[in-house]
Amino acid sequence: MEKGTLALAITGGSDNWSPARWKARFGEVCADRRVVLLPDDACAPDDVAYAAVWKPRHGVLAALPALRVIFNLGAGVDALVADPTLPDLPVVRVADADLTGRMTEYVVLHVLAHHRRLFALRADQQRHLWQPREQWAAGALGVGIMGLGVLGADAAQVLRRLGFQVAGWSAHPKSIEGVACFAGREQLSAFLRRTNILVCLLPLTPQTRHILDRALFAQLDRTSPLGAPVLINAGRGGLQVERDILACLDDGTLGGATLDVFETEPLPPDSPLWSHPGLVVTPHNAADTDPDAIAAYVAAQIARFEAGEPLQNVVDPARGY
Ligand code: NDP
Ligand code: OXD
User: Fold this and answer.
1) Closest ligand to 261 CA?
2) HEC assignment per residue over 102-119
3) Fold identical between 5-96+289-306 and 98-281?
4) Residue nearest atom 5 in ligand 2 by C-alpha distance
5) For 80-100, what is each residue's pLDDT tens digit?
6) Which position among 25, 114, 115, 284 bears the catalytic label?
7) Whether 243 is catalytic
8) Please, are residues 204 and 238 in contact by the beta-carbon 8 Å criterion?
9) Is the model's pLDDT at 1 over the cut of 90?
10) Which residue, 192, 205, 276, 308, is the most exposed by fewest CB within 10 angstroms?
11) pLDDT, tens digit, 9 for 90 and up, residues 282-310
12) 185 catalytic per annotation
């Protein structure tokens, strides 16, 4: 019997999201089934059993009557679950060592850059200024990670190994060795009060939208050698109130920020975020989804499913992540 077709529906913009590249890679790892790139007039919708997608056009999946599983090609499913016509089927998201390692690199890079005062040193260099700046031990700073899921938990462990005082905040209680774990809205203030560098790795849901606002930044600790606290957001742009970030950088509520994600992406050329001296902007590539690694991950999940084993990393539709 012929194996169900795998349909790809990919919208991206960067080379990483080149649909042709994904199709070529899926053609290799799913060589025993038909792989099509939607829209494809030659593909009968009721042949499609699986869809692998990134930000698919709304309605595209609802038009596939024999669809059995949807694979989201990234970790965050906010764009997918925003489709009001999304079929009631299992959605598998990416939770993969390759992506996790990339995000941990990004978080560690930016925590260390703020901690070791890289931006001030760079400014000194531009002025040919030999000016050793005070440095302190990692243990002098509290790093607080919002979101202790696959990505947050890994970053927390590496930061702890580097000597930072690491805390994390999640929806449900967690236990991670050496990491002070806080959960739920009732413990958010206690978590913030011990945080000097705030790292956000939350998913975007109705509960987390715009959580990164002035009221939250004002609760961060200002008594460490760093002085004003720092924000690093690599979760989603919808988590942050961008005008509050700019105003808090201006009035010293925040001492610096690194943002990988924005309300509007690509960040418009006239956005004031580009030129604020206290801000590091990266173009939503903290942790790229690598087609080689992720196509293999999806192929392995399809093999599990067809062998009657449970799918892994299935999104909980009630939670939205
Ligand atoms: P997970 O689903 O594994 O973890 C999410 C974490 O957030 C969990 O600890 C969860 O708590 C917590 N959380 C969710 N809602 C709340 C809430 N209302 N209050 C407190 N905590 C909450 O996701 P990942 O770690 O895999 O990914 C996190 C996000 O990172 C993705 O959703 C995506 O938006 C972003 N991302 C960004 C990338 C980039 O390049 N910038 C790349 C990849 C991902 P609990 O565990 O208790 O349920
Ligand atoms: C993801 C992303 O969610 O790339 O994987 O942002």
Assistant:
1) 1
2) HHHHHHHHHHHHHHCCHH
3) yes
4) 74
5) 999 999 999 999 999 999 999
6) 284
7) no
8) yes
9) no
10) 308
11) 999 999 988 999 999 999 999 999 999 99
12) no
207 lines ligand 1 (CB under 6 A): yes
Q: How far is the CA of 148 from the centre of ligand 1 (A)?
A: 7
Q: How far apart are CA 253 and CA 81, in angstroms?
A: 34
How many residues are present in the chain?
A: 321
CB distance 321 to ligand 1 below 6 Å = yes
Q: Which residue ranges make up each domain of the chain?
A: 5-96+289-306, 98-281
The pLDDT of residue 41 is above 90:
no
Taking only the tens place, the pLDDT of each residue in 140-177 is 999 999 999 999 999 999 999 999 999 999 999 999 99
Nearest CA to ligand 1 atom 38: 287
pLDDT above 80 (res 70) = yes
Domain 5-96+289-306 is found in CATH 3.40.50.1220: no
Of the candidates 57, 194, 236, 319, the residue annotated as catalytic is 236
* Pocket lining for ligand 2, CB < 6 angstroms: 74-76, 94, 289
Q: Which superfamily, per CATH, for 98-281?
A: NAD(P)-binding Rossmann-like Domain (3.40.50.720)
